[in-house]
Amino acid sequence: MPEGKFCNKRPVNTEEDLKALLGDKGGNQYYEEMNSLEVDTDALWSTIEKTCQSRIRTWLEICAHCGMCADSCFLYRVNNRDPKQVPAYKIQSTLGEMVKRKGKVDNAFMQHCMEVAWSQCTCCNRCGMYCPHGIDMGVMFSYLRGLMYSQGFVPWELKIGSGMHRVYSAQMDVTTEDWVETCEWMEEETAEEWPGLTIPVDKVGADIMYTLNAREPKHYPEDLAEAAILFHLAGEDWTVPSEGWEQTSLAMFAGDWAACKMQVDKVYAAMERLKPKRMVGTECGHAHRATVIEGPYWAGREDGLPPVKCMHYVEWVAEALREGKIKIDPAKKIKEPCTLQDSCNYVRNHGLANFTREIMSYIAEDYREMTPNREHNYCCGGGGGFNGIGKYRAERNKALQTKRDQILATGATLVVAPCHNCWDAIRDLEEEYEIGIKWSFLKPLLIKMAIVPDHLKAADDE
């Protein structure tokens, strides 16, 4: 079966192949080759027979086509309520058809499935909350993505992202040496203002092992410094691993389940090696989902849990404020009207909405809820990999309209977004629609308003 140089059924496993794929700017050759990519229908059906088990088959059968999921989907709403954007239709016309046809599908069908799976669904699973039969559309679309990946029909950027995890054990080309050097650099950068601050690497038996999103050391190393400052302020005994520090999984967005397992195994190995009391992950929704919620199953852990207790960053911040480890100067609280973006992956899928509200009660004087909110909140518009796929940028920008309208309705001028994808989507929303808002992670806000004990102040500040 003809396969292209870039667009093929082979995972990207070498740095040479990864750099070659990166060199295909915008994926031009990749998508041209995709037009000729043949579907291995026998392999596709064999995979479905082995992996499409009773749960998904039952969901496909019991869907009553009642339409209850329609208005729950922000993509249906922003696309003029097109019936083809109803979640039930989207999955039945792709995965459902694939199963009905026993894998006997062609290139055009697979390209249609790719468009639906990555530009018409973010796997936010809001629709699943409203399905009277409890059908989990997020699981079904994730499963569809895995089938697509196995046949080579995956967006160019996500083929690269999956390859990054396979080659570098991170979603970006950050080597172990790069990472450790970044820790040393940020420690040096903060030394004058924060005497005694350290970023301990590979400390065994610490109370906290901190894990990150690779974008932070690659593009925003100040985020690592901010995390270190807050742990320092709180008096935490913490460390970062030299290997297994990357918590995210673009492989999950791509449907590359083998790479998902490789990634989470690295993080769990770090836990086993360093034996921390708990892990705290950075302000990232899908990183938490990949490592804490889905990860144990990819890793084959029978108890369905990571090796140690794991917390999202909002859980740690709420705890630090509640226990007085970090104290807020009332005069420095957020004065302007502000609102909060609920990350699908740790609010809807892990029930952490109360922690974020608890944080806002400490740091904001004029907090305004979006409508709807908490687990009912809409996706930011960029989740599930949507933010990063150039081929579907126009569709992604249109998808931002729901979040735009929610923010405008609050009258808020600042959006607190403790999640990388949400932060990106709201940044791009402002760039696209110019509604006059600011957006921020929690870390820089907390540092600005935290009371610094005298014994932690630099000499000039005393």
Automatic annotation (TrEMBL):
Official protein name in the record: HmcF, 52.7 kd protein in hmc operon
Keyword 4Fe-4S: yes
Organism listed in the record: Oleidesulfovibrio alaskensis (strain ATCC BAA-1058 / DSM 17464 / G20)
Listed InterPro entries: 4Fe4S_Fe-S-bd, 4Fe4S_Fe_S_CS, Cys_rich_dom, Helical_ferredxn, HmcF
Top-rank taxon, per record: Bacteria
Cross-referenced PROSITE patterns: 4FE4S_FER_1
Domain 4Fe-4S ferredoxin-type: 60-135
GO molecular-function terms, A-Z: 4 iron, 4 sulfur cluster binding; metal ion binding; oxidoreductase activity
Alphabetic keyword roster: 4Fe-4S, Electron transport, Iron, Iron-sulfur, Metal-binding, Transport
Domain Cysteine-rich: 339-422
